[in-house]
Amino acid sequence: MSYFSAASMMISIFSTIQVYAWIATLWKGKPVLTTSMCFALAFIAMFIIGGLNGTITALIPFDWQLNDSYWIVAHIHYVLVGANLFPVLAGFYYWLPKMTGRMMNERVGMISFWLTLIGFNATFFPMHFLGLMGMPRRIYTYGGGMGWDDWNLAMTVGAFLLGAGIVLSVINFLVSARYGRPAGPNPWNADTLEWSMPSPPPPYGSIHIPTVQSRHPLWDEHDEEYDPEDARVLDRERMTLSTTWLDAQPIGLAKMPEDSIWPLVLSLAIGALAALVLVKSMWWTLAPIIAGLAVMAMWLWPKEEKRAS
Known about the structure:
Elements lengths: L2 H26 L6 H23 L2 H7 L3 H31 L5 H19 L1 H7 L16 H31 L59 E5 L6 E6 L6 H17 L7 H15 L9
Antiparallel strand pairs: 1-2
Helix pairs in contact: 1-2, 2-4, 2-5, 4-6, 5-7, 6-7, 8-9
């Protein structure tokens, strides 16, 4: 048995447990078919397809015949792309109203969902047939008359549909972030505490430390921030006691940082560094390294505290 086969069999056990957990969560809940939910359901379906074709590949007779064919490419894309693209887009539509304070357009979102779903499957599902027909992977071109042309054409059309669906979601975000309908604190009628805050949330969301009495705090009658004696007021902002690492002796107060764009800029610099290393442009890696160090200095530079007069 190859390494790929053994890994597929091991991963399939834990993936099956996780899929049953997701399905049970949906079964016990009351799903609403928003754009976000549709992307989440599509993720489960794509993950199951990728898991099943990986389990089949783990069987030794199949592995002998399908290894290094386009069947493997189909499996990898369903597991890696399908299991990452669809949940990211689901979170994209679910959380951006909280982050920006504006609702995304649901009609455009559903069009984007169907384009993405159809395009994804039209791109990667034919790879199963090509693998069974003997089309090898890691070959950049093929001769005509092999019987693979029609499936490759269908995959090309699917790739354009997939790209169109993703671009449509990006456009939806850019337009909705400026002109979208105001979201309010809880546009989804959710039950957890983050949806009790304004959209977008302030750096410090709660003045009073909230208390909860059930698993659905926003749906019960308990007032989570009820504190008539101000016993749970965060009167010195959100500070944490800093101590020595060995003896836990207090040495100061650590203040949680304000919102900042520098972590995002630093991650982009690290991404550029990784890309340049991959293409072996070592001299050019100095630019993102220097930029990253400068960003870290600006991010961590102590700021002057404002004192009340």
